[in-house]
Amino acid sequence: DGVVVPEKVKSNNLDVKIPESELEAEEKGGAEEERPRESDSNILDVSSDYPRDKHISIQRHLADLEKLADLREDEKKPCPLCPEEKFKACYSHKLHRHLQNLHWKVSVEFEGYRMCICHLSCRPVKPNLVGDQTLAKMGAHYHCIICSATIIRRTDMIGHINRHVNKGETESRFITVRAPKSSYEVVKESATDVQVLPNHSTPQKTDSYFNPKMKLNRQLIFCALAVLAGERKPIECLDAFGATGIMGLQWAKHLRSSVKVTINDCNENSVTMIKENCHLNKMKVKLHIKEEDNDETVGDGEENSDTIEVTKMDANVIMHLRSFDFIHLDPFGTSVNYLDSAFRNVRNLGIVSLTSTDISSLYAKAQHVALRHYGCNIVRTEYYKELAARTVIAAVTRAAARCNKGIEVLLAVALEHFVLVVVRVLRGPTPADDSAKKVRYLIHCQWCEERVFQKEGNMVEENPYQQLPCDCHGSMPGKTAVLLGPLWSGALFNTGFLRRMLLEAVQYGLDEAQPLLKTLVCEAECTTLKHFSTHSPGDENKQEECGVYIKTPNTSAESYLVHGKRKSEEVLRGMVKRQRAEHSAEHPPFYYNIHRHSIKGMNMPKLNKFLNYLSEAGYRVSRTHFDPMGVRTNAPLVQFKTVLMKYSTPTYVGTQAEGPVHLPGEIQVGEEVSAAAEIKVDNAELAEDGKSGVTATVFTQSYPTHCAAD
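^ tRNA (guanine(27)-N(2))-dimethyltransferase, sequence as received from the core. Prediction below:
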């Protein structure tokens, strides 16, 4: 009688796994007690539902656990799950209570099985100096029914099992088996179907991460790719972190022959799911796995001739090996580890887009992480979202400059869940130097939150506070400003590119991206006028980008670059004109929050009216997507507050003993008096007016500066 059960035995009960010979061996205790534990790995299949071996602590019923001890009234028996030194052999009634209270009641249940707590020395310790490996006499623990893990805490064991279930690993030991088709969910987005696991929104616990909240992010990236596909075709694009493959499938399904899509992922389960999702959308799959020497082409779907290449390798490896026109990076967390590889082989005038989801560090909640990842010192400010976008662009600029490439920022969006940056690559040392010069430090006043970029130059200034428009340093004690950065000091948007993105969003019916793109166009132009011209079919090949008309759909192939050849003089002149126009029409950096700078005791005007007031004062002004109550303007903070105070109305707060006095709605005072006259109205006069039943309250539209603190 051995421990190995023949293959012919097929039973769902685990009793057949523990023959009498093993029970007799357990009576001896001591060192012989470890022998059957080591031979458990040799047990063959005993269940069609669970083709794997199980530890003796995993049973269906308490009676099965008692059978292991072979309870008899006249003999003392040891506990099968405890060592001899922990629980000595005893009679049946005491051993029964021990098994029930200590092992069975604290067990973890999974599909009819109970994983009881085990006190045996099952986990090997680290090798000692001699080199041998002994068995550790550890405390109580659980044995996983799915894998070979030993978990100490019961709550950790429950979480461990749940992670197996979410990943579909419920079928065997040591071998990952995908979940059955019935456990998959089919999600449809932008006419694209994808299969996802039930825990698809938890990136730490699933191989196929799919976040429905990132739909807007996917639409913006699609619009950027569609604009690039209109410039030159076909283009090779890479989704470096495919997960479910939803983004690459949308590219191939809508843009078709204009793009050659490559979806990459380093996880085997994700690659398998990407292939299945390709077949679900009737796409052909060209499979290329680095570990295999040959390429496998799988054709499924005769209705559509589009082919998607699916690769399984590290993102850095594939970007080092191949060249692409469009690269999108969307890892879990920061993207700085992949920037050098992305800019190494990206083609000239290509586009690199990256989505950063490490918002805790970018939004200055974990400042030490931002310093470690981006080499940037930041603090929490009212404009923290734009600060995050400029931090990412600065890291992108330095990575591109190391590869002798410059960048042109086309789009920078910072929302609640992510920071999206889209840049165009300009090859050559001159664009690289020009881009690197735009990475500068920011001087930020911590009292009034005024900010200004540090002037260019290597000379150390005696008093850097003089660069700030405010006088907080002179009126406040100590140091009032901090040095933030290095940050990107250039423009965050390209007006012409955003307009073409808006046209693509309208053409493909991307409803969620259209309002945001309209706001971005106004923000890029720094204007409140929302005139979005729709080009006629005859003008499709003339669209304005940064003041220069460029050719788009109807252009000839001569206007664009052929890979591997030098740029023509016309393209160079066009680039210079576009850059000059961009510098002249560049939007002002950063914005002010109207609530942050509101005056105590005053009712602010409506935001749209306040924008008109600032515009009438001669300043450029627009709203911003970074903050719904933010105002992007080139006005200094002092002028911003002056205009805000001028058009704010006071909120009356009664200070008399009689209580607050309310002004009737029909009473209006048209006569204006000076603020000094209003302050000189003493309490006695107000009291007399109150006694006579007349409420005397004076409103004015102009207040001196010193009244703001009152």
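The longest helix spans residues 384-402.
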